[in-house]
Amino acid sequence: MISGIAVAVKQSLPSNVRVYGVEPARAADAMRAKEAGQSAWKGASKHIAGSPHTCADGLKTCLLSNNWPIVRDLVDHIFEVSESAILDAMELVVSRLKLAIEPSAATGVALALSSQFRALGHKRVAIVICGGNGDYGAVINALRKKYVQD
């Protein structure tokens, strides 16, 4: 998805607009490849230990070679966020905005809330929030454990 967003933003908005990606720390393969300066997707830049254990299940897959040149050239930087930050951001969006988003969509919110991102000093920020692919059964079960005493 970031490939399409980066193409659209870079072609239709002013040149000073930045496109940032964000991945769970446990599944940050594109971030590692970009930091390493990989010119071609080597396929070896897989997740650290097989299938990552992350709540952001939509981001468990590895980037494909046909998208890599777009990400490499048009995405300005890729950040990573922790599982805790993802879940806190998801809770904030659900409780304040009343939007049912998946954890993968909460990664952008988690980044925007981080001190690392705030230190960049951006005045206007847009976050793409999509998907309702979360395991809401698990969320309901966690709430039951927390609140139901019968």
Predict the CATH topology: Rossmann fold
CATH architecture: 3-Layer(aba) Sandwich
How many DSSP helices? 7
Radius of gyration: 16 Å
- Beta content: 5-15%
Number of strands: 2
Let me know the average pLDDT: 85
Give, in spatial order, the strands making up the sheet with the most strands.
1-2
Q: Would you identify the regions where 5 or more consecutive residues have pLDDT less than 50?
A: none
Question: At the first level of CATH, what is the class?
Answer: Alpha Beta
User: Could you spell the SSE succession in H and E letters?
Assistant: HEHHEHHHH
Count of distinct structural domains: 1
What coarse outline follows from CA principal-axis ratios? globular
Structural class: mainly alpha
